[in-house]
Structure formats: structure tokens, C-alpha cells
Amino acid sequence: MSAFPETHRRRFLLGTGALGATALLSGCLANEPPQQQNQNAVATGGDNAAPGRHVTIGFSAPAADHGWLAAMTTNARDQAEQFPDVTLEATEGSSDVNQQIAQVETLINAQVDVLVLLPADGKALTAVARRAMRADIPVINVDRVFDSEDAYRCWIGGDNYGMGVNAAGYIAAELERRGVTDPVIAEIAGTDSLPLTQQRSAGFRDGLAEHGLEVTRRVAADFTAESGERETTNLLQAASRLDAVWNHDDDQGIGVLAAVESAGRDEFFLVGGAGSRQMMDRIKAGNSVVRATVLYNPSMCSSAISLARLLAQARGMADLAEHEIPRSITTYSAVVTRENVDQYLDVGFAS
């Protein structure tokens, strides 16, 4: 999977905010005298690719027992290798909260310059992240947010609610294109106890409501292929007809599709979630029920490493007028379809 060293990819990963800031700055400069324009230009972040002082980045994430999590760690390592001025000190991934806390404490004691933390449990890791901040080791919090804002300098993560909204928007448009009235819409959620699942479901529900639609049938899996197959089998047995299905997670989607193919069902279309390469390949081939997937891309971990480097080097982002990196960045959940899949193949991860 690409580590996105090219400038245009970095700008894409860090969102459209940079473009907006640049446009706004250009508009403000247009009416200023040349001398003032030059002074303002100096205030921008500069060339982020230019080498800076050498920094050591500590990295900690859960065990890579899920395709998306494995891709997060892979992306972090690959991105760090793009910078000759970065040394990455990565701990062995662990989903045991106490073990991850101990690993982070080791990184703090080693006096790394900055920490990139994807917590197994944001609440449980808050105290040790705050300890790092008090030790003047800034923290980049990835995705699963800590309980307190003083536990991190910058948060970067996905838009769970936006995933649901965008999945709903695609489904509504496709149903209209197909001329389906009174549709049966199913949702295969992730683990219901997790806030991210609740947010995705809320976005999906609200997004459908905007089009006068609603979820007809819903099951919840556990983000694994096994649970996806089990719950989808139950869903298909209970529903003799389906028109559209949104599956929250492409890793559990392996099991979802196994159940669909075993049942011989193809009267509906399916939208995935996260953006695995396997789902993108199916979308491109156009020979299965999979018609789209909504990104929740592990490229955010590549961006987290880039942000950590800039933070440790006291630099801002080149496309922003600010001297410092932002406080938070929310990635965009683009909908990948057969029409645009080639644009996103390089960010697809292995389930």
C-alpha cells in the first residue's frame, strides 16, 4: 500500500481545508501592496518535504489482527521511511490496554520527540497520553479519541457519522436511478457497543431520512469475517427480498459476501465501508452485488506521521498560512464507485 510520498497525495490526505485556506489567503493578498504580500508569504509553512532537524517519533497502535489496523501500522512505518530526518520507534502492537500503556511509558522514558498514538481504548489511554504531554512530548492522537483534549496536541481521524451519511446518499441515488419504490434497505453494522458504530448508524439513518427512506432491517456484527458471515446469513434468512445493503466494514464484508454467495442472492446491491482493495477490485469488475464502498482510510496514519514530523520540527503545513499544524483534522469519507475506483486503488488496503 502506498505511503503517499508525493506532494499531491499528502495534500489530498490532509483534506480540502488547505485548499480553502490558500484560496482565502490569495484573495486577501490580491489588494495588498507588494511589500505586504511578501511579508505574508513568509508566514506560510514552507516546503514540508525539505529536510529539517532529525526527530524521533514514537508509535503505538493495537495489534494488527484486522486488515484496517494492520494497514494503519504499515502506513505509519512506510511513511516514516520517506523522511531521512525521521527515526520511528514503533512498539509491538497490542490490544491489551495495560500492555499498550506500558509500551507508551517506555517511549516516554526514552524521551522521543513526539508520539503518534492509536489507542486500543481512548478512555483507558488518556492518562498516559496526558503524562507524555506533561513531559513536553506532544501527542498526535489517531482516530480513537482520548477522553480529554489536554491529552493530545493534534487529533486526526475519520468521519464515522459522515460515512453513514454518504452511504445513505449513494443508496438513495442508486435506488432512484433503478426506479425502486418502497425499498427494503438493510444495514449490517459493526459492534453496537462502540461509539463509532453508533455514529455510523446515526449518519446512515439521518442520511436516509433526508430522502424519505429508512432502514428496514438491521443486524450487528463484530468487525470480523466470521461475525459478518453469521449475521448476514441470519439477515438473508429473515428477509426474502432486499433492495440495498450497507455493510459498515470491508473486513467483516469478506464474511458478508460469503453468506450472500452461499445463499445465491443477487437481487440487491451492496455498499461497503472503509475501502479495502478486495472490495475495490469487485467494484471495478462489476460482477458482484458490491457497487460501492465508503472510505474510512488508514492513510490517516500516514498523515499522522507527517504531522508528527512537522510538529517536532516546529513547522506548519505548507499549504496553510498558520505557523503550526492544526488542532484537529477529520478525513473525508469519499464514496468509491466503478466510475472513480481507479482514483482510489492506491489507498485500498488488504482485508
Automatic annotation (TrEMBL):
Keywords: Signal
InterPro entries, per database record: Peripla_BP_I (IPR028082), SBP_2_dom (IPR025997), TAT_signal (IPR006311)
SUPFAM superfamilies found in the cross-reference section: Periplasmic binding protein-like I
Domain Periplasmic binding protein: 57-313
Localization per Swiss-Prot or TrEMBL: Cell envelope
Pfam families recorded: Peripla_BP_4 (PF13407)
Family statement drawn from the similarity comment of this UniProt entry: Belongs to the bacterial solute-binding protein 2 family.
Name of the protein in question: Substrate-binding domain-containing protein
Source organism: Saccharopolyspora cebuensis
Higher taxonomy: Bacteria, Bacillati, Actinomycetota, Actinomycetes, Pseudonocardiales
